[in-house]
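Reagents: none. Just compute today. Histidinol-phosphatase.
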Amino acid sequence: MQILPCRAPVGPSIDECAGDLQTFSQFYSPAIQSTMKPASLVSIHGGHSGQFCDHARDTLEKIIRRYIELGFTWVGITEHTPPISDNLLDPGQRKLGFTAESLLEKFADYFVEIRRLKQLYRDRLEIFAAMEIETYSGYRQFVPFLVKTFQPDYFVGSVHFVGDINFDYSEKLYRRAIDSAGSIDNLYLKYFDLQYEMIDLLNPPVVGHFDLIRIFDPDYRSRLLRPDINRKIERNLELIRQKDLILDLNLRALYKGNDEPYISRRILEKVREMEIAVVPGDDSHSVDSVGNHMTTAIELLRDMGFSTEWRKPGPIL
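Predicted 3D structure written out:
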């Protein structure tokens, strides 16, 4: 169909052109339509608090109040799930004297508190009471147990552990994960294999920081292009597309000084071609990181042709 410019016998009025725009807008793609109005502020992954996370700061209520102050429309609060056993505790948790059992109790307290806050602020902010899962030994049974026990609104499927090593905790543990895998290339391959398995088994409504494995790798751009690694990336994206899941555009990398978020632009280009939904997540761990780089994320997605009519996470299947 040919769309002609608005015309009137003696020059168009604003109302006449507005009518034409309303008529023609039905032919625009969602991505083009989304550029016609400001994008709402949302975060699909974040809200870690010092109250319930050993490497975060501030209370959960202060963090939620900050989202309200900044004008967010909805947020998913996605606290980390606890370890299944003491041997999976991270160094910070050990230092503070936590056990797997005590962290499970704290996780139960988290759901009590997030549901209280969800009700308290229901007229000012839509809050999803969610969680971020892990992929250590036993996760196949443990995650369904947590879902059944706590009934989250949704969960984020993330991979922080490869070979039961929490590779993103520190450069030291990243090097240990490389040594365990045999090489950094093998670590990437194992990461994407574990991610594929997790997605296939658990159907997470949201897939978190897709390429987190690059976290301490200065050569990640070239490594992600290596044929064996790239094949696994494309395989995983195809599974995400088939299952109609949402990808988290995770802004924590920018907060920590990196020049692009998780997902890196090369992968994000493939995501756009495959028409997979992407929603920003600030991955906040404190009041001062709430909403970090959100404008950058919105501009990036718009420039690449993504819709900014943000899709909300669906129910857990």
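The chain has one domain: 40-303.
Action item: order primers for follow-up constructs.
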